[in-house]
């Protein structure tokens, strides 16, 4: 079981020691995690210091290091540039993917995201789920009608209340949402690199300053996993700053097993399978990337806390 290492305290020093990540403060060891057990490293404490040898070893193992801003959104991501013998030809195919191919991929991702949102609303007993399912059926190649945004305008007030606004820079429940999405983003980025693809070359998301473009594309169907978890804890979390206990609950999302046509798979494994299937799309061996059935994933209790 992979672990997400979160460094939120100030004055922490991270070094490599016997193929483990060693954390010290004032020269006193406060923690140690074998690198083989690490899914990703999230840095929130701006006073943290990392050794070059640790960063190099993390990169060799394909472990992303994510630096987060004060709103718990990522501002930097370190990823390996070596280690996959198929990386160069696969990135070339990725960069040369035709616009119709990218639009077709995006349609599938948006459709799955809206279906997952519908299932989340169904789980809380909201009748608006039926309207989301209709929107999902109306998504066209490239989503030119922006059904994704239409779904969001319906989804968030129902799930979180009429006064809620999804704003990454706002407080309240936006903070745990930001953190949960960051955890998923890091896991997707690792899966993308493991598949020999470049997380900066998206099929829909773009922006010169965004190193997560493909990660932001592929993470979309997984976002409702975070949404429903935050909803379940909304009363306790609404007016609280992000605490270690809240983070632990959100990080546990990556330990969930999702039902798929290939059997139950942990979330990171599902992401790797999806990224590898995307390689097949770029190679022309399949029309669309493989994705888990978002309805089934949520319906079979993957978000239960007990």
Overview of the molecule:
The protein has 306 residues and is an alpha/beta fold. It folds into 2 domains: 3-63, CRISPR-associated endonuclease Cas1, N-terminal domain (Ribosomal Protein L15, Chain: K, domain 2); 87-299, Up-down Bundle (Four Helix Bundle (Hemerythrin (Met), subunit A)). It is 45% helix and 15% strand. A 4-stranded mixed β-sheet has the order 1-5-7-8. The chain has a 4-stranded mixed β-sheet with strand order 4-3-2-6. The model is unreliable at 300-306 (pLDDT under 50).
Short description:
45% of the residues lie in helices and 15% in strands. The protein is of the alpha/beta class and 306 residues long.
Features:
2 domains; 306 residues; single chain; Four Helix Bundle (Hemerythrin (Met), subunit A); 10 strands; 4-stranded mixed beta sheet
β content, as a range? Answer: 5-15%
Query: Taking strands numbered 1, 2, ... along the chain, how are they ordered across the largest sheet?
Result: 1-5-7-8
CATH superfamily of the largest domain: CRISPR-associated endonuclease Cas1, C-terminal domain
Helix content: 40-55%
Mean pLDDT: 88
Q: Helix count, per DSSP?
A: 12
Please name the CATH topology of the largest domain.
Four Helix Bundle (Hemerythrin (Met), subunit A)
SSE pattern, N- to C-terminal: EEEEEEHEEHHHHHHHHHEEHH
The span between the termini is 18 Å
Shape label: globular
Please write the CATH class name of the largest domain: Mainly Alpha
- For the record, the CATH architecture of the largest domain stands as Up-down Bundle
Residue stretches low in confidence (pLDDT < 50, at least 5 long) are 300-306
- Overall SS class: alpha/beta
Rg, Å, rounded: 19 Å
Strand tally: 10
Q: How many domain units?
A: 2
Which sheet architecture does the biggest sheet show?
4 strands, mixed
């Amino acid at each position: 079981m992979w672990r997400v290492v979160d460094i939120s305290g100030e004055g922490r020093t991270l070094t490599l020691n016997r193929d483990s990540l060693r954390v010290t403060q004032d020269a006193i060891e406060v923690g140690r995690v074998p690198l083989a057990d690490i899914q990703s490293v999230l840095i929130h404490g701006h006073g943290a210091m990392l050794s070059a040898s640790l960063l190099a070893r993390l990169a060799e193992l394909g472990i992303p290091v994510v630096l987060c801003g004060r709103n718990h959104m990522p501002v930097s991501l370190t990823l390996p540039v070596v280690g996959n013998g198929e990386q160069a030809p696969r990135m070339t195919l990725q960069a040369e993917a035709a616009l119709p191919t990218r639009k077709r991929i995006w349609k599938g991702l948006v459709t799955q995201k809206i279906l997952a949102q519908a299932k989340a609303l169904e789980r809380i007993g909201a009748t608006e789920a039926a309207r989301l399912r209709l929107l999902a059926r109306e998504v066209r190649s490239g989503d030119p009608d922006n059904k994704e945004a239409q779904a969001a305008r319906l989804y968030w007030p129902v799930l979180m209340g009429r006064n809620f606004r999804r704003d990454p820079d706002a407080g309240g429940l936006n903070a745990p949402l930001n953190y949960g999405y960051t955890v998923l983003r890091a896991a997707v980025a690792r899966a993308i690199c493991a598949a020999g693809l470049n997380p900066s070359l998206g099929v829909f998301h773009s922006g010169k300053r965004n190193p997560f473009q493909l990660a932001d594309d592929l993470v979309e169907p997984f976002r409702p996993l975070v949404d429903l978890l935050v909803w379940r804890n909304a009363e306790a979390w609404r007016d609280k700053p992000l605490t270690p206990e809240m983070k632990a609950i959100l990080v546990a999302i990556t330990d969930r097993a999702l039902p798929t046509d290939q059997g139950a798979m942990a979330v990171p494994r599902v992401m790797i399978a999806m990224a590898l299937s995307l390689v097949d799309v770029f190679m022309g061996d399949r029309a669309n990337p493989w994705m888990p059935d978002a309805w089934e994933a949520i319906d079979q209790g993957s978000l239960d806390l007990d």
